[in-house]
Amino acid sequence: MPDAINYWPLIGVAVVVAGFALRRNPVLVVVVAGLASGIAAGMDAPTLLATLGKAFVDNRMLLVFVLTLPVIGVLERHGLRERARAWIGNLRSLTFARFLTSYLALRQLLSMFGLTHVAGHAQTVRPLVAPMAEAAAERELGTLDDDQRERVRAQAAATDNVGLFFGEDVFIAFGAVLLIQGFYAGHGIELEPLSIALWALPTAIAAFLIHAVRIRLARRVLTRRRSGVPDVPA
Amino acid sequence: MFRLEHLYWLVAAFLLASAFLNLRARRWSMAAFWLVLAAPFVFGEAILAAHAAGRGWPAQLMGLGVIVLGLLATLNPLKAPVDEAAAAQRREADARRFGARLFVPALAIPLLTALLYFASRAFASHGMHLFESRAQSLIALGLASVLALAAAMRVTRAGVGAAVHEGRRLLDSLGWAILLPMLLATLGGVFAASGVGSAIAPLIDALIPVDNRLACVIAFAAGMVVFTMIMGNAFAAFPVMMAAIGLPLLVAGHGADPASLGAIGMLTGYCGTLLTPMAANFNIVPAVLLELRDPYGVIRAQVLTALALMAVNIVLLATVVFR
């Protein structure tokens, strides 16, 4: 039986790994990988091009988020990020760790109710969350240097990702739950979406606890970097 | 009824305007990039209709377009936009002048998205379908963006031209990174059509001791993470790993509970998503948006969370799945 399987399409996976290792442009790597797998599977050029083109059109919904860019662009040009920073800067009790942990909880809860598109890197992180996290960190630590600023921003983006990923699977109408249900149904196992979604809860809780601790640790790393710099008030 | 296609026309208009602005500034390759990318949004329905009717050439032409996009991407490397001191001063002044009013349009995006989404579902449950039912939250997001743009233009007294111009600037700085998710999903489709999944299954069987339950669990978890990292999303990895290990070895062989295996297995794949630059919309796009010098800065901030969660998931897989 193993002789009947054509292993050559796996070359596409190898192309992705090699292209990434050689730091080629990812877009080009992915296109070449698709072409390589298709050719290895014995597709002729017209079929391969049509498969590529149709799959591309089928997935165009992933680009709808660009509609938020003009809004964010206009507001930023008129000082949105500066304003967000100033506002958080005035809230005395809101620390860096408290702010990001609250955002993590909020993002996870919203995702659990299916509101995955409410927040995101373009919608909320760049215009609001990152500048607010910076302001909170600055109130605790004084002016941030480039390295600290970079860490704060990266942590804001990471927090958004963790909140989204480990919240959305608890929502029964979310694609992943339906994909799991559909996969089993296709193999003769009938499941209720709710029974799948509920099993995402333990990991969701673990994700919140682990990342909340990581945010606190990130705050300590920021302080340690600060202590190397002599001329700044504690 | 409001359909996803209406949003696609808006996306097309924005991409075409960006292409035009780049053309006027003589940035030829960037202009060509947005022009080609507008094609699936302008002609998408027509391409799919032609394909369904058995006429292949529109989809083939789009396939050629994808190859062209791959080549154009190499001509437009990502770079952070330069910020001039004068512009920064003007922003500070505007921030003081407009004050808290600037938050209204920004917060309107999430609030209106939520409102429109719930309104659409409420109406749909009474038989009135305002939005195409398979994409309610996405349509809500698109409409919320349009309404928020109107609010932003009112608050800042910016015109449509200025809005498109600012949007174009952000779009240019995101560059090819915004295309990667769409392309990876495309690659998943091509892989499925060329039989990559069925080639992987026998390889895995040859590599692990299938009688050992823990070895199977670990191979399944590691396979989800690694394949998710290669493909950039867990959705592509799930059917492959389930067909190779999940169903034959864990469910049929060792009596695993399918519901918890599926849910926790998928979330194990998500740990891989936190670790890979292939998940560009989550890991590379924000690094560009936040103007980080290190393109892998976001991934670095996620590594420990991802590894700790992977360990938790393996423990869950090895215990609760075999109740």
Question: Mind explaining what this structure looks like?
Answer:
The complex is a heterodimer of chains A (234) and B (323). Chain A is mostly helical and 234 residues long. Chain A folds into 2 domains: 2-58, no CATH class; 64-227, no CATH class. Helices cover 71% and strands 0% of the residues of chain A. Chain A has helices at 11-21, 26-40, 45-58, 69-77, 80-89, 96-112, 121-141, 146-168, 175-186, 193-198, 201-227. In chain A, helix 6 (96-112) packs antiparallel against helix 11. Chain B is mainly alpha-helical. Chain B folds into 2 domains: 4-180, no CATH class; 195-322. In chain B, 78% of the residues lie in helices and 0% in strands. Chain B has 15 helices and no strands. Chain B has helices at 4-24, 28-52, 57-75, 85-98, 103-125, 136-156, 160-174, 180-193, 196-207, 213-231, 234-253, 258-273, 280-283, 285-289, 297-319. In chain B, helix 10 packs antiparallel against helix 11 (234-253), helix 11 packs antiparallel against helix 12 (258-273) and helix 12 (258-273) runs antiparallel to helix 15 (297-319). The longest helix of chain B is centred in the first third of the chain and has 25 residues, at 28-52. Chain B is globular. In chain B, 53% of the residues are buried. Chains A and B meet through helix 1, helix 2, helix 3, helix 4 and helix 5 of A and helix 1, helix 2, helix 3, helix 4 and helix 5 of B.
* Sheet of most strands of chain B: none
Question: Which range does the strand content of chain A fall in?
Answer: under 5%
Overall mean pLDDT of chain A? 85
CA gyration radius of chain A, whole angstroms: 23 Å
